[in-house]
Amino acid sequence: MFAQKNKSSHCIFMALICLLALYVGQVNAVWYEAKGQAIIMKGDKHSARKAATEEALKQALLFAGASINSVQQLTNGLLESEDITISSTGEVNQVELVDEVWHSDYVTVTIRADIFPKEQICKASEYTKHVASSYFSVANREHLLDGQIADFPAAFTRHLATLMDTHGTYAKLSYIAPYTTYWSPSTLPANVRELAKVADAQFVLVGEITDLSVTREPPSRLAFWADEDATRYFAFDVAVYDGLNGGKLFQRTYQTQDTWPFDRFAELDEYSQSFWSTAYGKAIDKQVAKFIVDLEETTSCQPLTGRVLQANNTNVTVSLGRDNGVMPNDELYIYQTRQFTDGRGETYLQYNIYPGVFIVESAYSNSAQVRHKDANVIINIQENDFVIKK
């Protein structure tokens, strides 16, 4: 039985995965059993069942190391079948419904999947990558007036970090600069590199909340005493950058909408659990879940990279440690970078690799001491050089 993630009866992220049998009937195939839960929104059991099934299958796939472009595509085909069983020539050979249990406001679905893991799972996925960000900006601050949620950008960024820490596998939002950055295209690569350096992070998130608008439908004249129906929208645009060279890895937009249960003059606490446990908060959480999957698919196989913190004639201290999964006797490589400009004015990044392999002698929570595998004397290595674990 594998360790279970933090459990909540109202959490769509929960999944319990059990290894049932190894190499049964097919070479290299493994059966996984997983449970997923989803809240029943507005009595829509079909959507809840679909969401719970999607979450269970996604967790089984990620745990097994399978790689698919879209779990959504697979589960849409899955749910077309009455007994929730599919066959495929891809990484998922078969998925079966084991059980579904309906509660008053949520459903639990158990599936069993026959999964072919990747032929070669990258070694880099064993290590935790640290991510940095500043508070997300907001495109239209007037959207913050309804509910008096002026601190929503900061609250959302912190909530994102919590969800990444709780439900992520490979990437953790370990540093949030306590301010909002308005990124200028001309200075963005340099600012990304600087934030990554300050935070000892490998990747940087640049995010903007593009929609927080509310639409309200007044009650009919025949039911003038009823409350108006309100819907709130949510959309955020996020780009992920390599903190070493400032290059963009991907950029996507996530959007949703749901019932907004609050009066326009209400003063809400956007940091509170009562806010995030609303239907609107849960709708945002589902978009964040999609982002976490996209982020980890993008970064999991990127080599683990850190910086040299201190160097002397015999030992080097680096910014990678046990928090990243680095342990004594691991092998690391150290290199320098420099920018140069060619005759046409084009700027390039040059990598100068220090010869040989470095061995981790002592690993601490966020640092490690390393020594050269063959040489007794270390020369030319400087603070802020880079270290990589392949």
UniProtKB/TrEMBL annotation:
All residue ranges annotated as the Flagellar assembly protein T N-terminal domain in the record: 31-117
Superkingdom classification of source: Bacteria
Family matches, as InterPro entries: FlgT_C, FlgT_C_sf, FlgT_M, FlgT_N, FlgT_N_sf
Start and end residues of each Flagellar assembly protein T C-terminal domain: 314-389
Record's protein name: Lipoprotein
Occurrences of domain Flagellar assembly protein T middle (ranges): 121-269
